[in-house]
Design goal:
This protein has 232 residues and is mainly alpha-helical. The chain is built from nine helices and two strands; from the N terminus they run ββααααααααα. The protein is 59% helix and 3% strand. Helix 4 runs antiparallel to helix 5 and helix 6 packs parallel to helix 8. The termini are far apart.
Length: 232
């Protein structure tokens, strides 16, 4: 004897005979528009399942709050340095930020890109030793440029940018650093596509900005003392 064709009740979702006029499970009457569901995937969901799914749904506002909570002091940010922030740092530190830039870039070259360099020594030479600062600047640009080229990015010229920086200095040095940083930013966008970009100043950048202010205050106090001594 062949098994009877079946369908699913449109009210409770239970399996019943295809020719049934009334569901044997829920007691609902099936009108003529009720069709066999043998060829349709079973989509009935019980009230219990609905309640469980409702409890597992996180409201959008809660998700946004959770995301905001994750962006705190412990958040890892991209190494991209927005150009406007770089420009402000150079202005507010009277160009001294370039020393910190050399240090941080060499830290990235060593720690993130795996090249054996000494950020401390390079920063020391760049800051205090004439001629050596030019060599360090070129080496930093050249080392970073090699990794940039590996990603297929059109790179700056380490030699040309070093020559321009040495010959012209001043405002042109700002342009050189911005020109180089734009390419480096493109590199980090590829290497760290999922990390957020820091928009505000970091704690270390704030310290770098405070140092010139302290120097200026010290110089002003020293000059005032000299004037007072000369008058006395």
């Amino acid at each position: 004897m062949e098994p009877k064709e079946t369908k699913f009740c449109v009210y409770c979702g239970k399996k019943i005979f295809a020719d049934a006029e009334r569901c044997t499970h829920c007691g609902e009457w099936l009108n003529e528009s009720s069709i066999s569901r043998n060829h349709i995937s079973y989509t009935y969901t019980s009230r219990k399942n609905i309640d469980e799914e409702d409890n597992s749904i996180i409201p959008l506002n809660n998700q946004n709050n959770a995301n905001k909570a994750n962006i705190g002091d412990g958040t890892e940010f991209s190494k991209v340095l927005p150009i406007r922030r770089l420009f402000l740092l150079m202005i507010l530190t009277c160009g001294l930020y370039s020393i910190y830039w050399i240090y941080k870039t060499n830290c990235y070259i060593r720690d993130d890109l795996g090249k054996d360099v000494s950020p401390g020594w390079r920063t020391f030479l760049f800051t205090l030793i004439p001629i050596a600062n030019i060599i360090v600047f070129y080496m930093t640009l050249n080392d970073m440029g090699k990794f940039i080229k590996q990603e297929g990015i059109e790179c700056y010229s380490p030699g040309l940018n070093t020559v321009v920086d040495v010959l012209f200095g001043g405002i042109i040095s700002f342009w050189v650093l911005i020109n180089v940083q734009e390419v480096i930013n493109e590199f980090w966008r590829i290497k760290e596509p999922n990390l957020p970009i820091r928009r505000e100043f970091s704690n270390s950048e704030i310290i770098v900005m405070i140092i010139p202010l302290l120097i200026l205050i010290f110089v002003a106090i020293f000059a005032l003392l000299v004037i007072l001594v000369s008058i006395g």
